[in-house]
Amino acid sequence: MPDYNSYEMTPKETRRYYLLAVSVLLLAGQIFYQSIFCSVLLALLSVPCKRLYVRRLAEKRRASLGISFRDLLYSLSASFSTGRQMPEALKEGLEAMRLIYPADAPIVPELEHMTARLFRSRDDEAATLDDFANRSHSEDIRNFVDAYFICRTTGGDMEIMIAKASALIIDKIEIKKELRMLTAQKRLEANILLLLPAGLLAILQVLSPDYVAALYEGLTGRLVMTAALGLMALSYAWSLHLTNFEAR
Questions:
Q1: Model pTM?
Q2: What residues make up the domain containing 75?
Q3: Is residue 206 domain-resident?
Q4: Which of 175, 176, 187, 197 is the most exposed place for a label (fewest CB within 10 A)?
Q5: Positions of the chain with pLDDT under 50
Q6: What is residue 246's predicted lDDT score, i.e. its pLDDT?
């Protein structure tokens, strides 16, 4: 099972990334340099940029796991209220998650993996849950697993503990979801601001090429364009950093 701090792209995802990244960088090279050579050099940046793209995919997968874990907590709480133990609760949770999420959603294969370890391989319950918490790199999942084992070790009322822990973690996940919705508009604005200068420059090249001709002639024009492109990339990266509250 995967470690959620990393992401392994499929061949299809890799081809799609390079097709999109190379196309965008070639277009940017033509807009800012009007040079095939410079466009090709700029397109080579798609190789180091892949690491940033993979990091973004890993963050999206962790966020998806966190949201689906909230729904799993509802199922686990209901199962424990009827006297189920953790293995049976996870099995019922798997059936519930299959009704809500597609088969490729992170929570579904995770529950399939855990129930297989518990029922088929007869693995230790603590090791199974601890492995899931470690690979998820999620504070919410880790807190739930720790609370469960503390209650089991001390002999506390499992039903009450699960209900209270689930309620607290669900509230925290809901707050994170609201924060994502609030920052989504800012990320959209950052995308628009990134495209706006390039769009205006492309329009000027078509409607008034003489007006911007000096920017494509000589070393000074190249340096100005390179600085503009660099500042755009820097401002976009900074805006993503400001709106990515989970990375801090």
A1: 0.79
A2: 11-247
A3: yes
A4: 175
A5: 247-248
A6: 56
